[in-house]
Structure formats: C-alpha cells, structure tokens
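TEACHING EXERCISE
Course module: macromolecular assemblies
Task: Read the component lines below, then compare them to the predicted structure of the full complex.
Student: A.B.
Group: 4
Components provided:
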Amino acid sequence: MSRILEIDDLAVDFDTRFGRVRALDGVSVGLEAGETLGLVGESGCGKSITALAVMGLVPTPPGRIGAGSIRFCGEELIKAPKSRLRNLRGAEIAMIFQEPMSSLNPVFTVEDQIVEAIMLHRPIEYDAARREAVALLERVGIPEAAQRARDYPHQLSGGMRQRVMIAMAVSCRPRVLIADEPTTALDVTVQAQIFDLLGEIQHEFGVAIILITHDMGVISEMADRVAVMYAGRIIEEAGADDVLDHPQHPYTRGLIACIPTLEDDASLREIPGVVPPLHALGRGCAFADRCAYMDARCRRERPALAPTGHHANACLAVAEGRL
Amino acid sequence: MSGSYLIKRLLWGVLLMAGVVVLNFLLIRLAPGDAALVIAGEMGGASEEMLASIRKEYGLDRPLMVQLGLYLADMARLDFGQSFYFNQPVTGLIAQRVGATILLVIVAQLLAIFIGVVLGVLAARNPGGPMSAFVSVFATIGYAVPVFWTGIMLIILFASVLPIFPVEGMQSVKLREAGIIVKSLDILHHLVLPAFTLAVIYLAQYARLSRASMLEVLGSDYIRTARAKGASEASVLFKHALRNAALPILTVAGLQFGNLISGALLVETVFNWPGMGRLAFDSILRRDHPTILGVLFFSAAMVVVANLLTDLAYRFADPRLRGRT
Ligand SMILES: Nc1ncnc2c1ncn2[C@@H]1O[C@H](COP(=O)(O)OP(=O)(O)OP(=O)(O)O)[C@@H](O)[C@H]1O
Ligand SMILES: [Mg+2]
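Instructor-supplied answer key:
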C-alpha cells in the first residue's frame, strides 16, 4: 500500500468574536490507497474542517490554515496555486456532504450537475458526458436513471439525492473520497443502503474513503482505520478493530461505551460534561474536565499523540499506566 | 409549463384591466372641472348653447353610468374616443408615442438590472471590501435623490460642460431623412441620458438587493458542492450562485415596472422625450379626459403584461415552481 494523502501537523485558525481560536491543532493523519479511514468525534471537534482543509475549501475569512502540510501523492497542497487545487478538486479528491437536501443546486437538473463535474476535468463531448452521467446514476442505484436524470433535485428523495451526490463525486474516478456524515440527514434504512453503496463503490473504483461520523457503530461496519478527534486534535489512532476492542484514551472508551447493543440501549448514555469551547482551552488536556483519570499533570500539560505499537494515543494517564 | 396556468393568468389580466378602466373613468369624472369648458376654451370661448351642444356631442350630458357603459363598449373595440384637445382619435395619439415610452422603460430597466446586478455580485464577493461599501453608499444616494434632480443635473452637465450626449428630444432634425442605421444610432444617442436618469434609482436598488441575495446564496451548501467539483470562481459566482440569487431580483424587477412607467413620465417631461408620459402630463393640464384615460389604459396594460412576463420568467428560472397552477 502507498500513502496517497498525508496530513502533517495541520493547524486551522478562525477569527471569532472571542479572538483567534485554533480549531485544528497539530492534526497528523495519513490515508492509504483504497482504504477507509474513519474520522470520529463529537460535534465541533474539527472533522469537517479537516476535510475542508484537504479540499482547500476552509472558508477564508474567517478561517485560515495556521500551520502544517497536506500532501496528495507527495504534492504539497497548502501553498499550491488555486488553479492547481481546482484541478484536483472533483478529479482526484472528491467530497460528499451531510445535507443531500441542500447540497445540489436547485435550479439545474441532476444530469446537468453531473455532466458539469465530468466536463470540468475530462476532455469529453457533451453527449458522451450525458450518457456517462446516466450510466453513473444507474450504477448508484437510481431506478429509471435516464428519466430521473432530467429531474431537478427537489423531485428526488433525500436518499436519492445522496446517491446523486455519490455519482457526481466518483464521476472522475477520484483517488480520495471524503464523505462527511453522508447519512446523518437520512432515515435508518436508507442509511444502511448508502453505506452499502459506498462500500461497493470503493471496491469497484478503488477509491480511498475518509468517512466522517460520530457514530462508532458505522466505524465498526465501514472503517479499516480510525482517528478519534477531540477539540481540534487527534487523540487516538489505530486499526478499527483495535480501537473498538481495545480503546485506550478515556474519551474513546466513553464513545465505545455509548454504542447501542441489542440488550442495552447505550445510546441514551453519554460521556458526562461538555466539550470546552475552543477559546477557553487551557494549557492542559482538553478532555481533563470530563475525565475520571485526570490528575494535576493533565491540567498542566497537553499530551502529544504517542504511538504505542500501531496504536497511537494522546493521554498521560495511559502513558503513566494509571488507567 | 402548463397552458391552463397561462390562460388563468391572461384572464386575470383582462379582469384587472377592466377594473382599472372603470376606476380610472370614475376618478376622472369625479375630478373637478368641466370638460365641456375645456373643449370650448380650445375653440376660443363659448356660449351656453355651445356648451350644451358640446356636451351632447361628446355624450357628457348623459348619466354617469350610461357614459361608463358606452365607454366600456368602445374600449372593448379598442376605441378610446376623440381627444378633446387634438380632436383626433386617442388611439392614434398613443400609437405615435407608446413606442418611445416602451423603448425608454425597457432600456432603463435593462440598464438598471445589468449594472445593478454586476455591482451587487462584485460587492458580495467581498462583503467587507471597498466595492461593498461603494454599493451601500451608492444605493442610499440613488434611493434618496429624486429623478428630476438627477435629470436636471445631467442636463446641466451635458448641455454645457461635456456636450457629448443630446439633452433634449429623441431624434436630430437634420437626420430625419437618414438611413435606418444612422437613425437608430441617433435615437440611441438621444436615449443615453433619459435612460440613465431613469435607471439610476432602480440601479441602486438592484445593486443592494443582489448583494444581499448573493451573500445569502454564497453561503449555501450547493455553492460548497460547486467548489468541491472544481468549478472556477466565475462559474461559481455567475452560474451557480447568480441563477439562484436572480429569483428575488426578478420579483422586484416585475414589481418595479409600474414605478418605472410613472418614473418615465417625469423623465420624458424633463428631457422632452416624445412618449406617453409627456402626453399624459400635457393632457392632465388640458383636462383632455379621453387622452388621459387612454394613456392610463396603456400604462396599466404595460404593467399587466410586464407582470405576466415576470411570472413566466420566474417559473422558467425556478424549476420548483414549474407545473404548479
Ligand atoms: N465559519 C466558522 N467560523 C468560526 N469558527 C468555525 C467556523 N467553522 C468551524 N468553526 C470552528 O471549528 C470547529 C470545528 O468545526 P467542524 O465543522 O469541523 O466540526 P465537526 O467536527 O465537523 O462537527 P459536526 O459533527 O457538528 O459536523 C468548531 O468548533 C467551530 O468552532
Ligand atoms: Mg461536520
């Protein structure tokens, strides 16, 4: 396997009314060709910003890349010219979003939007692009694709729209697909269908997926590897089975304890406390206030992501064997 | 688009026009002043018998409701009667002038929309930037300054300081015999100042509106999707965003049409543009009721047609509205 995406010590800052806050801090994570990397964590921990940084789409202002590097197949993206990023977006690195209802442009047909994605990056005739768009719609499981292609987004259900988004995202055979909570807005049976589809697409197109979710259950179904984020940092990273079976960081343990099982509806359980706001982060570990293993050192020092074998975590309690 | 929708809208338009006709007629007749005196005045003084015979000739001696009935019957045949002042059919008078007004109004409207939207889009690209501040200031000034003031200032400027645009009329007398192309260019040349004057107020409004509308649209998810596809910034702004931001602009454009026509009345008067506004202004002073009514009818018809077209354009622009009735 080879690393196609390498994020190194990435920091993203936002100007807010509390001053400049660091929404991502020292994020380092890699993506192997063809694998699925799960990115999990509570709301606001920086999952989407990480994805947008890879796309070169961090809203600027108020945001900006504060430090770090993002390399795609060895090519640095952070300082790359805008035109180069445009050429990569959609062609090599594609993204689908949380809100299928609002992520498609309401005034263009589904077909037009896919054709646009194809023609932006490939030397292809309009008619050929249209045929390909219909074939893609068929591939993502849209019945009567040729007719539906002429529909406008409002004529399709949420699940169908997300299928359209997937068709559009893979239309140029990208090597990286970022799926940012692709099913959050959909109902449960449709969620399962969309994940099945993503799995098939990955298999068929050989695309590496970064799957963003806050659902550990989805991780266990889909991901090869997992990076757990908390307050703008990665606090644990390892193979999905490792993390699920032997979570190390107290936060990850909390997340896993909240996965519902058949006997016990643990989803009603929660990790006590709340994520501190970014502008109020102190010097110490951001999870300290909610952590049962916290001691004085956790308040003073922010632990770095320390690898233990193939299983990296950022926790002083783990490092000191206090757990 | 459904044909039944179109028919429904057309019937509405006709009904609306009938209402406008009745209302105009009653309002004019209720206004003080004896039309017979005016007509007689034009003939150079009048005795009591003469007034009576004038009233009889123009049907002014009949009861109001009978007059209304007769007027409506004439209207239905598109006969607007004789002008008291010119003593010719009103239809002919209007036909000579309606083209000039339509030209002025449409060019002003297009100018206002085009410049306004471009300014608004550029302002929205950078909401804190200088272009954005300019649009805000310009919109406030454009909104506050009356049309005749802009017109008079432009006349002063272009009549004395920078005489590159004609400030009066629609055609140069010496070019009356010229070929069609030269003549058209001459008309366009004359059109610049009146159209710009009329456009200024609305231009400012369109700029502000499209700035706000674009700002809203640029924050939406499908714009992020367009960028994620690798679309160029120009395509994001003018294709993906503007097509959506145009919807409220279109609505306002339709609503403004009526205001534009009444604005044209002032502008035509200031620049001596030979349109219906000028005719209306003169006819009001002359109490030339049939002409006033005719002008009002045509103005209302223009507004009704403009609104119908806006509605159709709106349905074309927003697929979510198609197929609804
Ligand atoms: N436009 C913005 N302006 C200011 N701060 C922002 C902006 N966008 C994101 N942030 C900050 O960045 C942090 C991370 O946001 P992000 O959207 O990446 O969270 P997330 O992990 O995707 O959460 P969710 O699960 O809710 O989608 C947030 O806490 C927020 O404070
Ligand atoms: Mg998010």
